[in-house]
Write a structure and sequence with these properties.
mainly beta
Length: about 70
């Protein structure tokens, strides 16, 4: 059984760290309405590899990695 619920993004902080051309690029993600976080990259992210750290309003954090 899978449980899911929508959580408003207000109060969350997040940073995405991608490897672009062999160099780490940090992208600050901010609430973008509803349950979305959004940020802008200075370089194209054709096949992003990296991690996203999200901090909740109460100070807990979670890290997600993808390749």
């Amino acid at each position: 059984m899978t449980l899911s619920r929508t959580v408003a993004a207000d109060g969350f902080k997040s940073t995405a760290i991608f490897v672009v051309d062999g160099k780490p690029q940090r992208i600050v993600l901010t609430p973008a309405g509803g349950n979305k976080l959004s940020g802008t990259s200075a370089a194209p992210l054709a096949s992003p590899k990296g991690a996203v750290e999200i901090s909740t309003p109460d100070g807990k954090s979670v890290l997600g990695k993808f390749e």
